[in-house]
Write a structure and sequence with these properties.
mainly beta; 5-stranded antiparallel beta sheet; DUF1996 domain-containing protein; DUF1996
Length: 325
């Protein structure tokens, strides 16, 4: 499955890592069900029943998907949000991201859909150098908006864990791939990571085996964000000290801190049906879908944190310092 989720809101809250805190440390762009809020206690927060709309193509998907936001830092020290472009082959939504739910290609491996209350995080926003935390987190400098020539599977070839440092005429495709093996017990853990794991060998698509500690095969959730950097490709506005002008909202000037959060919220057994039917793309015979216009209309218009985000800003939201090491 590959479909769009338009931008629900951009604001400084994080109900997984910093529940109940507004503002949180750094800015996120959020997609999915409009019940997204500061706390989202799993004991009483049920996205399908509390959301009145979703910004995603599949109408029964009230999950929430969020990532850090990307900024351009000009040579005068001011910052500007980098917008997102529609991913190749999709219909055009208001920013946001592309979401994938993949099954092993053998057509035999049983995939168990996430359970209500399931959450997970991948990546570490504090990283500024290459470490194991970047597994399946990467960036691709696109030569053009047509992504031609196609660079192959995510996180292969010339893709890098770090942000590209040169001009990308077709923007930057940033990928986040979540673990696909579950311990079968915990819907979450204090670090939001220990209850899931990547396959013990091989790749998920080729039915790499799950470790004995995490024996349950989950759908492979993957995000792609197309950062439309084209308006910032004029090198005359780039910093003169040689630092990368692209900076993530947590003050990460390297890209190694790229990370993503996932909160399950599909209605009823819709996701299990999609996995069993091996749905593909952004339409499936047994699944309800909505138009790009309907998805775009689902937005949270009143932010929990009131701060300027448009135009040129004197600092990153929260006055996050930019670090490169």
């Amino acid at each position: 499955m590959r479909f769009e989720c338009s931008q629900l809101i951009i604001e400084r809250i994080d109900p997984l890592v910093q529940p109940g805190i507004a503002p949180s440390a750094h800015l996120h762009q959020v997609a999915g069900g409009n019940s997204f809020n500061v706390t989202m206690d799993p004991s009483n927060h049920d996205p399908p029943s509390l959301s009145t709309c979703t910004s995603c193509t599949y109408a029964d998907d009230f999950s929430n998907y969020w990532t850090a936001s990307l900024f351009f830092k000009a040579k005068n020290g001011s910052f500007h949000l980098v917008p997102q472009a529609t991913n190749l082959g999709l219909k055009g939504k208001n920013g946001g991201l592309t979401v994938y739910y993949n099954s092993p290609y053998d057509g035999k491996t049983k995939v168990t859909a996430f359970k209500p209350g399931f959450r997970m995080v991948v990546g570490d926003p504090t990283l500024r150098s290459a470490k194991a935390e970047q597994k399946q987190l990467c960036h691709r400098c696109e030569a053009n908006m047509q992504q031609n020539p196609f660079g192959g599977a995510p996180c292969t070839g010339s893709d890098t864990a770090a942000l590209p440092t040169g001009i990308c005429a077709g923007g930057i495709r940033a990928t986040i791939t979540f673990p696909t093996c579950w311990d079968g017990v915990n819907l979450d853990t204090p670090d939001h990571k220990s209850h899931v794991a990547y396959p013990s060998s091989g790749s998920y698509e080729s039915t790499g085996p799950c470790p004995s500690t995490h024996p349950v095969h989950l759908p492979q959730v993957m995000y792609e964000v197309i950062w439309d950097t084209r308006q910032f490709n004029d090198k005359s506005i780039w910093p003169t000290d040689g630092t990368n002008p692209l900076v993530y909202s947590m003050g990460d000037g390297t890209g190694y801190g790229w990370h993503g959060d996932y909160l399950f919220g599909w209605k009823g057994n819709a996701l299990q049906t999609a996995m069993d039917e091996r749905c593909a793309g952004d339409a499936c015979a047994k699944m309800k879908t909505q138009t790009a216009e309907e998805a775009n209309a689902c937005m949270i218009t009143k932010a929990h944190v009131n701060e300027p985000l448009s135009g040129w800003l004197p600092s990153l939201p929260g006055n996050m310092p930019v670090t490169y090491s």
